[in-house]
Amino acid sequence: MEMSAISQLTPIRTPSVNKPTPAEVSQEFSSFLSDAMNKVNQAQVESSNLADKFAAGEITDLHQVTVAGQKASVMLQMTMQVRNKMIESYQEIMRMSI
């Protein structure tokens, strides 16, 4: 009787997970970095435009210009730190012996 109960059980199947290929991961990472760099550039351009408008007297809100400048600065600093960590990681991998 126990054998018939066991034979009625269906095996548990784990859902197959579609693992991305290395090329797909590389493309996604490249796209992510490109988007991030575009955002940093956009912040730099916006900051520059606001500073030019402030200098020309078109806008009088100094706080807006200062915040845009600081935002662009922080974004650029963070980008540089990420770049430095990536280079450091690459160099560490190159030093590894196989």
From TrEMBL:
<comment type="similarity">
    <text>Belongs to the FliE family.</text>
</comment>
<keyword id="KW-0969">Cilium</keyword>
<dbReference type="Pfam" id="PF02049">
    <property type="entry name" value="FliE"/>
</dbReference>
<keyword id="KW-0975">Bacterial flagellum</keyword>
<feature type="compositionally biased region" description="Polar residues">
    <location>
        <begin position="1"/>
        <end position="19"/>
    </location>
</feature>
<feature type="region of interest" description="Disordered">
    <location>
        <begin position="1"/>
        <end position="23"/>
    </location>
</feature>
<dbReference type="GO" id="GO:0003774">
    <property type="term" value="F:cytoskeletal motor activity"/>
</dbReference>
<dbReference type="GO" id="GO:0071973">
    <property type="term" value="P:bacterial-type flagellum-dependent cell motility"/>
</dbReference>
<dbReference type="InterPro" id="IPR001624">
    <property type="entry name" value="FliE"/>
</dbReference>
<protein>
    <recommendedName>
        <fullName>Flagellar hook-basal body complex protein FliE</fullName>
    </recommendedName>
</protein>
<dbReference type="GO" id="GO:0009425">
    <property type="term" value="C:bacterial-type flagellum basal body"/>
</dbReference>
<keyword id="KW-0282">Flagellum</keyword>
<keyword id="KW-0966">Cell projection</keyword>
<dbReference type="GO" id="GO:0005198">
    <property type="term" value="F:structural molecule activity"/>
</dbReference>
